Amino acid sequence: LPSASSTAAMASRALNLFTICRRQFGTTGSLASKVAVLGASGGIGQPLSLLLKQSPLVSQLSLYDIQGVKGVAADLSHISTKAEVSGFDGPASLSDCLKGSRVVVIPAGVPRKPGMTRDDLFNTNAGIVADLITAVAKTCPKAMICIVTNPVNSTVPIAAEILKKHNAYDPRRLFGVTTLDIVRSNAFVAEAKGLDVSKVSVPVIGGHSGVTIIPVISQAVPSVSFKAQDRETLTTRIQNAGTEVVNAKAGAGSATLSMAFAAEKFVDSVLQAIDGKRGVIECAFVESTVTEAPYFSTPLLLGRDGVEENLGLGNLIEFEAKLLQAAMPELQQNIAKGVKFVKERY
């Protein structure tokens, strides 16, 4: 068990992160922000685009997919919010979609079905991400890139390697969106403890699939305690929450609505940081030296140019340290698979 001093230190760090995350220091005024959504007519792309259309921080919403997106754009354009919506169908229009984008969000790809792991998606989604990132590198290399497409543990390294080939890689500007793991952790902890979920914050570190998802419940705000068995059960549920939805939908899809909510939350934080808000913190899967894994998710302080500071692991209790140790082999393999894919095919 952690000592009283270490418990106090963990609580202090957690409270500090939570306070910074919600502190508003004033901004320099809203900047015009064009956001591109690649894969906008899909199960995640449509609700994500709807949520982004409602954001006061988005001035232009540029939607791309291989087909069907013009109808989505026309539908969204009738909503009485300020973002101007444009739709772009097919690869020939991709560069026009991307021109001038400050943020590019990529939910494109095939969804998971019952019995599939995120890694099973690799063969299809790896090529989709590589092709889209190639267009980003050529058209808007300074954009903040938010990768939603699974398996994130592999697609982020793929994106990085493609960007490097075009001399367009800035590790501060490439993010794997793991926010759904945080959203789920907040919801499940709040439910278990009868708390107001809007006031709950649970950092989640590691990766974005199975055992690589490491909820750091010891750093939750407000501080919560669980019996060992309950903590283990809750952790397992968070790690397998995606499968919970896939099975509940019985072949009809994966987590689309909650993923769209989480992705919009992350993009909103990125836009706030670009716009000059200070103290914006989100967890995301980025290039990292925090562990031996070259990419790793931890709380990040965001700024105008992306990652301003990696806030690291904080103090982990023994249970969480064991989760970290158990996650590393699979995480390293996922990353290496993405790197190898680009080296062999591009």
TrEMBL record:
An example molecular function term from Gene Ontology annotations: L-malate dehydrogenase (NAD+) activity
> What keywords does the record list, in alphabetical order?
NAD, Oxidoreductase, Tricarboxylic acid cycle
Lactate/malate dehydrogenase C-terminal domain boundaries: 178-342
Sorted alphabetically, which CDD domains does this protein's record hold? MDH_glyoxysomal_mitochondrial
Q: Where is the Lactate/malate dehydrogenase N-terminal domain?
A: 34-176
InterPro entries in alphabetical order: L-lactate/malate_DH, Lactate/malate_DH_C, Lactate/malate_DH_N, Lactate_DH/Glyco_Ohase_4_C, Malate_DH_AS, Malate_DH_type1, NAD(P)-bd_dom_sf
Q: Which GO terms describe its biological process?
A: malate metabolic process; tricarboxylic acid cycle
The record's annotation in Gene3D superfamilies points to: Lactate dehydrogenase/glycoside hydrolase, family 4, C-terminal, NAD(P)-binding Rossmann-like Domain
PROSITE patterns under this entry? MDH
**Positions bound to NAD(+):** 39-45, 65, 125, 148-150, 259
Q: Name the catalysed reactions.
A: (S)-malate + NAD(+) = oxaloacetate + NADH + H(+)
Active site annotation, chain numbering? 208 (proton acceptor)
What are the transmembrane regions? Answer: none
Which E.C. number(s) belong to this protein? Answer: 1.1.1.37
Extract the NCBIfam families matched here: MDH_euk_gproteo
Q: Which family does it belong to?
A: Belongs to the LDH/MDH superfamily. MDH type 1 family.
The record's subunit annotation is:
Homodimer.
Name of protein: Malate dehydrogenase
Species of origin reads: Macrostomum lignano
